[in-house]
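[Meeting: bench + compute handoff]

Bench side (C.D.) handed over the final construct sequence. Compute side (W.E.) agreed to return the predicted structure before the next meeting so the bench team could plan truncations. Sequence as handed over:
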Amino acid sequence: MKKKVALLLLTTIVAGTMMTACGTTDDRTSDEVQTENVGDENDMVEAETTVGDTTVEEPATEAPVVEETTVVEEQVTAGAEHLATFEEVDAFINEIYTQIPEDKMPGAIGNMELSLEDMDAVTYYTGLTDATGVDSIVVSESMIGSVAYSLLYIRTNDEGDAQQIAQNVMDNIDPAKWICVTAEKQIAVTLGKDVFFVMTSAETADLIYDAMADIAAQKGLAVSEKLEKTNAI
């Protein structure tokens, strides 16, 4: 029994000595050196790190790829205040005429811009006796004979009150200015800062108005409430 105890004691001492000697080697337990996996294995590249005197290879993730995002600002188009030039007004009027049956329109219609310095002409065509607030006046009428047809497009400036100018035209224009014929119906509206006016037969005036309103909406011109007047013929 004593021999067994002695032998066991000797074995314990030898084992302890061996463990002390192992402490001087370069081996590391799993608690001393740790490797951390980050991300997907397919995306990892190896990197080196040093723990104590030992260089250990460890996986490292690739630098993240940041996708560029393009922000598109919403384009907001405000309603137009008016047409800017005679060419634009001329094209607008002619576009209206393409929507009207040929047998409802007089022949040989021409568009012309009045001189604001010629107040006699301004008054004859519009009924206005003062051009304050007016930037330009375009008249569209038949160039032959006495035909009861007149269309006006009046552009106002910063001093102009388009609604008041439209009312002044309605009240003061002479629907019988051709002497032997009279315009049956008058219609006036504002298109933003512009004034649109037509006088002719009731049927054609309504056709002109409807076509104008559709085209004005496409151009972003706000059409006001319609002013109407019927004349005895």
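W.E. noted at the follow-up: The CA atoms of residues 110 and 221 lie 24 Å apart. C.D. will use this when planning the next construct.
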